[in-house]
Amino acid sequence: MRAPLRRLVAQPSRSRRAAARVLAALALSAFAGLGMGAVEPAAAATSPILLNAGSADKPVEPTVFASYRDGSKDSRDPTYVHELEWSSWGQAEASGSGSVRSLGSDEASAVAVTLSAVKTCGGFSVYTHYALTLAEGAKRPKGWPRGQSGDFPCLVNAGAYYPSFNRRSADAGGCQFRGLGLPSQTPSSFIVDLPSFEWKPALDYNVFCRMQWKGWGKSSVTGTGVFRDGLRQWGVKVELSRLAWCPQLTVTYTRATMTRYGDPETITGHGNITRAEADHLRHNVGRKGIKTQRFRQTVPKSWGCRTI
């Protein structure tokens, strides 16, 4: 035994404990030399960076995408950028190559593609900007520079419902929210074909008017307003949760829970609902002693959504 260790072992119990620690360290070093080092902790799992484009066929390294959300002329072609192959992905910039159709024709030109401007959207890291560069010798697409670059802003949504858009374009009654399916109006630059996901218990018809939301964009959000079914209407509370990235929708809530309060009132007039009428029905929300009924709507797994 080495002299320093003999001295440590000869000391009182405290020193003996110290000696034991030294011996343990020497033993671990010896095992490491034999390729039996201490097990390293598993690397923390990191979420991949996704493309924030509903037109993408998949969120990571898509083969096609278009810029539906920035109003560009290319938005009417869901495969504007296609035949994509990626040389890098997951860093501050993603690089690849593909082809671009000339606007308004089937001719295609080779391009280099760069994705950048990584931002957090509903808990997901997403690329929010694209830029295209013509390959050497490639024909300049008709319509450029329109469509040569574009943005995919963070728009956390519920199905195809975007509060910021709907507030700008809603009619006086604000009856825009239709749950997690297709709303009554969508941005002209957003091409999407959504089913009407079923409510449980089943509802024949559903439209929500004058919804007021709190916490939109967080992991869950609550809204109050008016629910209409045929000629009947109720005050309601809607809770949206389970954020996911879904094809055609990007970051969206995938579960809706609706609580209907009180007895229905008959709709007066046609179409829009006045603010006073909405406030009257909203007053029932949360009242004690009033009867309630709950409904749930969920985007099915078959839709291909990806959770955080």
Structure in a nutshell:
The protein has 308 residues and is of the alpha+beta class. The chain has 4 helices and 14 strands.
Overall description:
It is a single chain. The protein has helices at residues 3-10, 13-33, 163-169, 275-282, and strands at 50-51, 81-88, 94-101, 108-121, 124-134, 149-151, 157-158, 199-200, 207-214, 221-229, 232-246, 250-266, 292-298, 306-307. By secondary structure, it is an alpha+beta fold. The protein contains four helices and 14 strands. The strands form two sheets. Strands 7, 8, 9, 10, 11, 12, 13 and 14 form an eight-stranded mixed β-sheet that branches. The protein is elongated. The protein has three domains: 3-33, no CATH class; 50-151, no CATH class; 157-307, no CATH class. Helix 1 packs antiparallel against helix 2.
Question: How are the elements arranged and paired?
Answer:
Elements: H1 3-10, H2 13-33, E1 50-51, E2 81-88, E3 94-101, E4 108-121, E5 124-134, E6 149-151, E7 157-158, H3 163-169, E8 199-200, E9 207-214, E10 221-229, E11 232-246, E12 250-266, H4 275-282, E13 292-298, E14 306-307
Parallel strand pairs: 1-5, 7-12
Antiparallel strand pairs: 2-3, 3-4, 4-5, 5-6, 8-13, 9-10, 10-11, 11-12, 11-14, 12-13
Helix pairs in contact: 1-2
Number of domains: 3
What is the chains' assembly state? single chain
Distance between termini?
56 Å
Mean pLDDT: 75
Shape: elongated
Order of helices and strands: HHEEEEEEEHEEEEEHEE
Poorly predicted segments: 1-45, 69-75, 166-172, 183-192
Q: What percentage of residues falls in helices of 4 or more residues?
A: 10-25%
Strand residue percentage: 35-45%
> Care to count the β-strands?
14
Protein structure class: alpha+beta
Number of helices: 4
